[in-house]
Amino acid sequence: MQRVVIRGTGHYVPQRRLTNEDLTRMVDTTDEWILSRTGISERRIAAPEEATSDLALAAARAALEDAGMTAQDLDLILVATVSGDYPFPAVACLLHHQLGCLPRTAAFDVSATCVGFLTALQVAEQYIRCGTHKNVLVIGAEALSRFTDYEDRGTCILFSDGAGAAILSRGEEKDGAGILHTLLRADGQYADLLYIPGGGSREPAGKNKMAMDGNKIFKLAVNAMTQAVKEALAATNLTIDDIDWVVPHQANQRIIDAVARHLSLPMDKVVCTVREYGNNSAATIPLAFDLAIKEGKIQRGQKVLLTAFGGGLVWGAAILEY
Questions:
Q1: Model confidence, pTM
Q2: I want to staple 315 with a disulfide (CB 3.0 to 4.6 A). Which of 33, 71, 200, 309 is the partner?
């Protein structure tokens, strides 16, 4: 089986900042209330003319440049999103054209909410390991502000926009170990705890804003991410002490803190971007991962653990040697 390595990474966030102070003029809340419950100070919001594909395109170009590749080198584009430009075609197909890919390059979207990037990562891993593809562009991109109810203080304080990307490639002799293990899990009985009720085939004209039971989601999230990490470590015969960095889904600082406590994980090994960027769903892990690389935290040869949960309910983890 082929090794799968990360050749390059990139990200993009919109320019507009929506601060806690801004939200106090929109809903009954305070900066202290938001910070104490979420750890979020501000979130990035796409401009009116920016759609998910625009965010993804900027992140994709940054990742290609970082990898020293062009769009013609790609065999497959995978975009993880729940906020595509249209019901169809896929954001990946829009990128295919915008990047100037060859017709032989396949493209499709993955819908797995906040676990979308990990899901696309596993799909790309399988294609490369079995020899079908050599270079795969994996993107997590969201314009969640389009589906956020800014009259609901329980959700509008959380969600934001952004994109992160990675180029996965077939490993060569000089490369490190690359992806060591990926796992995905699901339990559909909790689907109604976090969802968008309208806009689909059941209620095409229904309300297309997110609805969430935050208290129940919190408990499920902590347990799910903790269990996913333990399963991934066991599968690779590693302990948490062997991991150099953990990049969790940036849903809420309290969730991240709770998972770290459950794992006896020191916070100085946890990458946290939620304060400055909020929760941009499938984009949080690749965004945080790239920022940590660019800031000089994550180094080549280090072991990195990724973990996420999201509406569905879905959750997962991945361990890689960067």
A1: 0.97
A2: 309
